[in-house]
């Protein structure tokens, strides 16, 4: 059997060396952006408050990042989907999953770069270049992890983006809560990473290889307790990143403590990377994964949907509510790997709709925070539509999308995800999913309703402390999200057409 | 293609109106609704011999969704009434309402989504519009309610979603279990086995019953009708409630005919219970809008009663009465909107003797009250008569003797008698007798009279020449029953 494998690999229509390098373009671009952002940051000392405008490197970094990332998005969108291969010494999958997760992660990074520096300015923290460099570095790690054909590379990607995220989470060290949650994330996440690494070691012990394709060849024929144990540990590590119940305890605290734009980025991009890695690992586990899927992932999906939604319902802070809803959405996403490979398109569409809706909601929240200069509780946003009609309108659109009400994007995501599951004969998960959507609609739309409701019933004293905010790029990012919500809601076919092949 | 413009116009104009300033927004929105209405008239042409207009394009084949619209016999009246009543409501929005542009924009969006709902010939598209119309409705309730906007809106939201999310499950089950090759078209789905129809019909039925609403799913109704501004209530009572009855008629008869036949008896009992419940609640209600709210509940249940007769006359009567009720109740709530613009109170006990003070208001209100209670010669009479005779005949066809069905018809007819009681009581308490404690209002001005005269003219037209309005629905029913 081991002799068959090299032949199989040679049979793959292997591209030339030049082609190999082409497919690493995104990584080079992100690496270059990271270096460029850092260099621009080094050029000047952190400016003092008064002269911030003169020496700020923000426009240069932003311009560079927007051009490069837009180019990268264009590269992903126009990439020839029929081609599917292993590149760079077989370390790197170059297939639809790599491409789509790369696309989604790049979009997340673009939105984060557009909005992050604005939020830092609010806290008089002007190291925007460093912030962007960390975003690029974590995007790079996520793309590596999502495309890795070798478990070592997967772990490398994981660590690359985790370390960047640790730093991003404590980026506002003046805030007690930010430091606390950053530390919490660091400790728990590194523990999860080591569990994952241990699992990889066991898998290596069981199969004698670190290549996913070779692992698949082994596990398709036999299954040992060792590989089972290894897979469980790897799964725990990935599910932790996905924030699936019962590995979700870090999520609300970290999401709440981190800068809101960082939360927006990590809540979606991490899920894309972890889900892609989970999808690849499960594919590589052959027989082993079949049993485990039914047993464990199935129940974790249900648990996440119910626990996440119920806890979100009872939150007072809007940010915490969105954080718990992230747990619930991880549950919806798990439906895809549970049901099987036919869910591929549905999973990617759901991720895309979740991206625009969720990042949009967090960005709108960041704008409200900037205006009211405090943590936002649900009753702080009552009547927001009168003060900030554009922000409130976009916020409402994103919340409607998250709730899964047509004609917003979220509806199409849920429709396709649940429907495909039903088509595969899986009835329980869609029913639980729809039940969860009902609870979800109560808090998402409840929040949206309060945006529009009449604030005259409330005391008007709170309105006095409003700051003027001018966050133009954040508003641009929010508008992009809203347009995405509407576009994907009306014509999801445009995205589905990009998903040309299977795994 | 014109049908797409007909549907797209209010949606695009609505979105544009959100971005406008208050000044001019009302005129713009009224213009949009007016043009839409005229477009509708030109699409329909002559009612009694109209050709159905349709448009079809594949949209998302993976999900069985097609962009499939048509004006047919079942929806033609509602399709015309939707822009018309929206136009009238926009015309009566008070000029000093806060955030006026957002209010009329939401009314236009509601108009657009309702139009889409009535036009949709694809179950998935139908569901999308059914859910989407919730959004402008919620904005309207939350933003402009007299009191407890958020609570009222949330209650409405929860009731509706509990009804309609199970419907999503039904749509999904149909979409992904390979029914027909053409996706979720209504026309290709009459072939389900009886067993599957029974399973899948219940989520749909629940959604429709909540939307109408029928007792015991009416918990959201009194609050909403009482707290919303009357222009909004007019649109909700006249048109949005029809989403439920139209859904029962269209989806019930075309997709789930066998299942509908199976549950028709129990639905009739529920409907009769609702007719009487609404009537007695209206008799006891103490506020201007509450009486009309419960009256609407009772009349809507009568429409549902006609549909579940599953008989040509009864169902055709229900189809006609959807229009009749929309005109009469819409007109009454529009009149209440006029009164609200004059800051008149809401409690009945503070009213009295309004007719001599504002004679035009009194006269028009009397007309609409009579229309609503089913006065022969006015719009509600032919529909209700057909519903009752239809159900009676359907019962007599089976057995010659007196059956439960006959008793149900008698009980439903009692609802009409009670309607006379509570609506005349309403009119008497507000317009006649001792002058109550309120600031004496201006009488209707020219524009307001003109607006209120539109439903009056329509109700006379429907009452005098019902056959013209009946023909399309009868032709349609011939095809499905």
What characterizes the major β-sheet of chain B?
A: 2 strands, antiparallel
Count of discrete structural domains of chain A? 1
Most extensive protein-chain contact, per-chain counts: A-B, 39 and 39 residues
Shape of chain A: globular
Mean pLDDT of chain B: 90
Binned, the helix content of chain B reads over 70%
Radius of gyration of chain B: 21 Å
General description of the model:
The complex is a heterodimer of chains A (503) and B (481). Chain A is mainly alpha-helical and 503 residues long. Chain A has one domain. In chain A, 75% of the residues lie in helices and 1% in strands. Chain A contains 22 helices and 2 strands. A two-stranded antiparallel ribbon of chain A has the order 1-2. In chain A, helix 18 packs antiparallel against helix 20 and helix 18 packs parallel to helix 21. Chain B has 481 residues and is mainly alpha-helical. Chain B has 2 domains: 255 residues, no CATH class; 219 residues, no CATH class. A two-stranded antiparallel ribbon of chain B has the order 1-2. In chain B, strand 1 and strand 2 form a beta hairpin. In chain B, helix 12 runs antiparallel to helix 17 and helix 13 crosses helix 19. Classes of the chains: A mainly alpha (503), B mainly alpha (481). The interface between A and B is large, with 39 and 39 residues.
